[in-house]
Amino acid sequence: MRFRRTPRSSEAPRIRRLGSCSGGSVCNAAPSLWDDELSSAVRLQTLLPEEDVLVCGSVYKRLSCAVLAAMLVAELGVGACWAQDAAKFEITSVSRANEGEAVHLTFRSERDMIYRVEGSPALGAGAERWSNAGASAAGNGGALTLSVATAGLGDQYYFRITSEGTVAPPGFVFIPAGAFEMGDSFVEGLSHELPVHAVNVSAFFLQATETTKAEWDEVRNWAVETEYGLIVEGSGKGTDHPVHLVTWYDVVKWCNARSEKEGLTPCYYTDEERTEVYRSGNVDLTHGTVRWDADGYRLPTEAEWEKAARGGLQGRRFPWGDTISHSQANFWNAGGESYASGTSGYPPDWDEGFFPYTSPVGSFVPNGYGLFDMTGNVWEWCWDSWHGGYYADSPEEDPLGPDDGSFRVFRGGSWHNDAFRGRVANRGWSLPWGGSGNLGFRTARGQ
Fold first, then answer.
1. Helix crossing, 248-261 with 213-224: angle to 10°?
2. What are the start-end ranges of the E strands in 358-426?
3. How many Å apart are CA 233 and CA 217, to the nearest integer?
4. Which residues contact 225 (CB under 8 A, 6 or more apart)?
5. What angle do CA 57, 63, 65 make, to 5 degrees?
6. Local confidence band at 226 (pLDDT 50, 70, 90 cut-offs)
7. For residue 8, what pLDDT band results from cuts at 50, 70 and 90?
């Protein structure tokens, strides 16, 4: 249903309350919108009956009959209408920013909840039209504002607030669901970093820092006193430095041990019925032996790792941009890459005369998601088995890597590797029983 446009004036758009609606596919209060108080073109459109709608301007009203949407083209550049499917995510105000290229949405949030903005070019055609608009945050129990870029969205676009679940556990950050371009967009790396391909990753939590020696020791000491088999001691230059000299097998068992220590459901099992928790030995696990919906600790998949490392940026070389120096990461500056600058060799702040030249976790500025050391310090084990040609056949939705293989993937570069190895697209691999002085890990958790 369309209505005529009203003349545009210099005054800010204003919407009067529409009154109550009592069902049906069209609200009989709609014609009352069209008077001199509207100073911009407004388009009304019928919605699915189960949706709640906010009509936003200087004044707003949520329509309980859920049949109308309005777009204020003059006020917000590309306009704004917020449709939502839960009344508790009520948008209370909206403002424009960056000369119309962004909007700020303010709403009442609940503590211990993660919220995100979804966008759609149209309404009433089902949930498949809604996609992640790239803004998310944890609720604080009060007013919360999320900012969304609107440049390039066309003449009209719709937004809504949805919940992603609970706030990240202590020491973890929330990684929002959404698609990203995985691989080497600069085509400067190795062949197994290609082709660049779109991957959609579900929301998850990722440890903000690499696992420290202190964290490793606490869980390992608990595990060896229970029914767990031998888990290596590992090594670390200090209690707040990342643990290293840990094998993939030991890391996976450690994840299970931490889950059980904290009363969570373990992720890894030795059978596809997932009845026998993996606690001892070197077992080559498959996708079917993992409870992906468990609330326990696990390794991130390679796709999860790269999405998280990019910090919300697309097509960049590092978690923060396209160049690197010792002020941003702990790596060996060989001086051979045009995108590496500053002091050469090992980082002077951590070159203490003996290996390893690790730094305390969190010593550098985090990326856009709040993650530290996604480039440098130590490599990080991932879940995936290794195959150099996997990207050519990788599924688009939550890829888990090949289901067999002799090697396991690690990511992120280290203090002992050059800038080339620290690129977020770079991939490494090792035998799962191998460990080194520059290889550690960080854990993930599902929602």
1. 70
2. 379-385, 408-411
3. 7
4. none
5. 155
6. very high
7. very low
389-437 pLDDT, tens digit each: 999 999 999 999 999 999 999 999 999 999 999 999 999 999 999 999 9
Residue 275 sits at φ, ψ, to 5 deg, of -110, -25
CA distance 78 to 156: 5
Write the DSSP assignment of 245-290 as a string of letters. Answer: S--HHHHHHHHHHHHHHTTPPP-BBSSTT--SB--SS-----GGGB
Please name the residue that has the structure tokens 């870029």.
149
Number of other residues whose CB lies within 10 A of the CB of residue 154: 9
55 has a pLDDT exceeding 70: no
CA distances from 401 to 34, 88, 393 (A): 56, 38, 10
pTM of the model: 0.71
pLDDT of 271: 97
What average pLDDT does range 159-167 have in this prediction? 72
Sheet-wide strand order for 439-440: 428-430, 408-411, 379-385, 439-440
Please name the residues in contact with 99: beta carbons below 8 A apart, sequence gap of 6 or more: none
The full DSSP string for 325-372 is -TTT----B-S-STTB-SS-BS-TTT--SSS-----TT-S---TTS--
Total residue length of the chain: 447
Cα–Cα dist 51/161, whole Å: 12
Give the integer Cα–Cα distance in Å for 216 and 348. 27
192: helix, strand or coil: helix
Going by C-alpha positions, the residue among 406, 198, 203, 394 that lies closest to residue 292 is: 203
First to last CA, the chain: 40
Assess whether pLDDT exceeds 70 at residue 244: yes
How far, in Å, CA of 398 to CA of 341, rounded?
A: 35
Residue 263 has, within 13 A of its CA and on its CB side, a CA count of 0
pLDDT of 387 higher than 80: yes
Tell me: pLDDT of 218 over 90.
Answer: yes
pLDDT of residue 89: 61
